[in-house]
Design brief:
GTPase Der, Rossmann fold, 3 domains, ribosome biogenesis, KH_dom-like, alpha/beta, GMP Synthetase, Chain A, domain 3, AAA+_ATPase, binds guanosine-5'-diphosphate, 436 residues, seven-stranded mixed sheet, 23% strand
Length: 436
């Protein structure tokens, strides 16, 4: 599980600047669940082989009086509760304030590992200004400049030190369970679906451990295929039924997606595709996971709503075109068989082996059928291709002047590779590698 780092501090100390800096790696994804968590932003960051999630909070004023300020403080407290580590940001130029003391007192009582980032420290090396922050009782301040990118790496190293390298889901053995995450915003029907599944006789669920921070997975079997359902909803077993304790947790959702082989993205037919659905879908795409989209509550919509829904999916989820789209009713147990089939196919697609000779032949046929366009003096020459990775599958094309291959042409190649290897439900990445 990716560790979660919360950034807290009073307004204007540079939290957002630090957030942008931390999530600025090539892999950065900013999942901004607007509306749901007004003042919290979630982003992905990476330091070497360690991936982490960062939460940016609004301003944090522990004794906030009312209204918006109070709401911001509530958001910050929530972020601290969700986090594995806290970076407390202070402003060296402004110096220590009473508010900083209040926040420090709150953080010391939180039981979380807290690191002090003394921001805006560019050009202030060895200055006495840093020393006063020892008073906060948080430990040695890390002098950083978020704006100029100074001291960030050593701060991160300290923060991430207790967490090991992340274990990317390993290449699964043939009989290894398929790790499945059911993702979707609140009320789309995740708990209902999971209970429907686990209530089926053929499906053997085992008992659950019950810790809060650890990922909870429910192992089960269906038609001889083993699955592991990764909890996204804070599920607890209550008798024969699973109950969601928290209604929705962004962190759990992001972690489950990162940890899954296949994500089942659930939509609510009665609501259409909302902004939040699109954010979650975008995150799934960026994570490179195999994905199946299921529109739930199909029993509750009329023909007109179905048409609207089809249009909103086309518009807002166009980037998930590769994912199979199914229509189900969790309460009526309708359409569930095809979901399992799609999940298994998506998983198999994500792990398909594509031998070099076959890829190279496909490439040559594609070029013979339609050659890439000349760009200025350059005509890209595609020579051969090999598989650069699985889950998601990556095809590396070798040749010359490949930087001139257009996106349109890449999509053309992608289409031909997909159809040959029958890839559905998985992203396919194509990388161009020019030789000399
Ligand atoms: P937040 O309210 O804590 O999220 O603070 P912001 O990230 O919005 O930053 C507040 C102000 O401080 C902005 O004007 C930033 O440009 C500035 N700032 C942020 N980091 C640095 C820094 O490292 N050095 C300096 N000099 N200014 C900074
Ligand atoms: P979650 O927040 O995603 O776990 O959603 P829940 O499983 O708690 O479901 C939210 C609401 O949608 C509940 O009132 C369910 O009874 C209802 N619901 C779930 N699945 C269906 C369905 O297939 N059809 C209809 N009509 N309602 C459903």
């Amino acid at each position: 599980m990716k560790p979660v780092i919360a950034l807290v501090g009073r307004p204007n100390v540079g939290k957002s600047t630090l957030f942008n800096r931390l999530t600025k790696s090539r892999d950065a994804i900013v999942a901004d669940f607007a509306g749901l968590t007004r003042d919290r932003h979630y982003g992905d960051g990476r330091l070497g082989d360690r991936a982490f999630i960062v939460i940016d909070t609004g301003g944090f004023e522990p004794d906030a009086g009312s209204g918006i300020v109070q709401e911001m403080a509530r958001q910050a407290r929530q972020a601290v509760a969700e986090a594995d580590a806290v970076v407390f940001v202070v402003d060296v130029r402004a110096g220590l304030s009473a508010q900083d003391h209040d926040i420090a007192r709150f953080l010391r009582g939180s039981g979380k590992r807290v690191h002090l980032a003394a921001n805006k420290a560019e050009g202030m090396a060895g200055s006495a200004h840093l020393a006063e922050f020892h008073e906060l009782g948080i430990g040695e301040p890390h002098a950083v400049s978020s704006a100029h990118g100074q001291g960030i790496r050593s701060l991160l190293e300290a923060v991430l030190e207790p967490f090991g390298p992340d274990d990317e889901p390993a290449e699964p053995a043939d009989d290894a369970p398929i790790r499945l995450a059911v993702a979707g915003r609140p009320n789309v029907g995740k708990s209902t679906l999971i209970n429907t599944w686990l209530g089926e006789e053929r499906l053997v669920a085992f008992d659950l451990p019950g810790t809060t921070r650890d990922a909870i997975t429910v192992p089960f079997e269906r038609h001889g295929q083993r699955f592991e359902l990764i909890d996204t909803a804070g599920l607890r077993r209550k008798g024969r039924v699973f109950e969601a304790i928290e209604k929705f947790s962004v962190v759990k959702t992001l972690q489950a997606i990162a940890d899954a082989h296949v994500v089942l993205l659930l939509l609510d037919a009665t609501q259409g595709v909302t902004e939040q659905d699109a954010h979650i879908a975008g995150y799934v795409l960026e994570s490179g996971r195999a994905v199946v989209v299921a529109v739930n509550k199909w029993d509750a919509v009329d023909a007109y709503q179905k048409e609207l829904l089809a249009r909103s999916i086309e518009q807002r989820l166009a980037f998930l075109k590769f994912a199979p789209l199914l229509h189900i009713s969790a309460v009526r147990r309708q359409g569930l068989g095809p979901v399992w089939k799609a999940i298994a196919e998506a998983h198999a697609s994500a792990n398909r082996k594509m031998p070099t000779p076959v890829l190279t032949r496909l490439l040559q046929e594609a070029v013979a059928h339609q050659a890439p366009k000349r760009s200025g003096n350059f005509r890209p020459k595609l020579r051969y291709a090999h598989q650069g990775g699985m889950n998601p599958p990556v095809v590396v094309v070798h040749g010359n002047s490949l930087e001139h291959v257009t996106e349109v042409y890449k999509r053309y190649l992608e289409g031909r590779i997909r159809s040959h290897f029958k890839l559905t439900g998985t992203p396919l990445r194509i990388e161009m590698r020019s030789g000399r």
